[in-house]
Recover the amino acids of this structure.
């Protein structure tokens, strides 16, 4: 019973944070690795994809009702990210992530400094007219982030938001909305792979999904209510937390 309670609390917090700025996996993934240490890492990663997909679905639905989406942009990036996530999931049980973590740590430190120093970052008005070369950059980064989500996962939502802001010129609210759709695609790809290889513990995944949905619903409503400035502050907090989390893993 305590195992279920702790996993559900972690999933609720993950859904809440992920709905606003992404990065919910930084809570959910370490929690399940600690609470269920006797299972294979691939099985635990596969199990977290069910609640992540459920919570992200609710967030994406709520954002789509209030925020105008660029479906052409979403289709291209989500398709690439989906295929990349399949490849990442396939490699999750066989390759180490020790090489990637130092790179991610340095990247996140840079993101935190840039976001804090540039007060207008993610505050500009949304613009649907995106230059063709930026679409290619977005697709390339979607490929990299999609593979990362299938392979490791935590922090994917935050990375996607960064792409939609820094590369594609969106504000935080629109970037959060678009990132949710792409994250749905990567989660779905991982679920398809992990379920086909027997790497999902449904007895834990389903109750975690219910709690993730609840947290996601509350987080999305709060983000839509408070707007860009609130999301920017929350984004900074999550990035700083991510930096601390990766630094602890490394050192």
């Amino acid at each position: 019973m305590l195992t279920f309670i702790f996993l559900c609390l972690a999933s609720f917090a993950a859904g809440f944070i992920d709905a606003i700025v992404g990065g919910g996996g930084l809570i959910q993934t370490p929690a399940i690795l600690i609470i269920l240490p006797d299972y294979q890492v691939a099985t635990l990663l596969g199990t977290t994809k069910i609640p992540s997909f459920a919570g992200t679905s609710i967030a994406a639905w709520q954002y789509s009702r209030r925020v105008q989406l660029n479906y052409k942009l979403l289709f291209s990036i989500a398709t690439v990210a989906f295929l990349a996530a399949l490849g990442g999931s396939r490699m999750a049980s066989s390759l180490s992530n020790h090489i990637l973590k130092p790179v991610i740590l340095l990247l996140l430190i840079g993101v935190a400094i840039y976001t804090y120093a540039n007060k207008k970052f993610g505050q500009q008005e949304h613009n649907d007219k995106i230059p063709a070369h930026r679409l290619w950059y977005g697709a390339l980064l979607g490929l990299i982030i999609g593979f990362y989500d299938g392979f490791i996962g935590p922090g994917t939502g935050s990375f996607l938001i960064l792409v939609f802001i820094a590369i594609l010129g969106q504000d935080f609210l629109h970037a959060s909305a678009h990132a949710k759709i792409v994250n749905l695609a990567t989660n779905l790809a991982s679920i398809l792979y992990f379920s086909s290889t027997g790497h999902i513990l449904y007895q834990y995944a389903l109750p975690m999904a219910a709690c993730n949905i609840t947290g996601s619903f509350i987080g999305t409503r709060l983000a839509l209510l408070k707007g860009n400035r609130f999301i920017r502050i929350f984004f900074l907090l999550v990035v700083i937390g991510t930096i601390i989390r990766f630094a602890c893993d490394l050192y």
Remarks:
- The chain has a mean pLDDT of 81.
- The CA atoms of residues 58 and 217 lie 6 Å apart.
- The chain has one domain: 2-250.
- The first helix runs from residue 2 to 21.
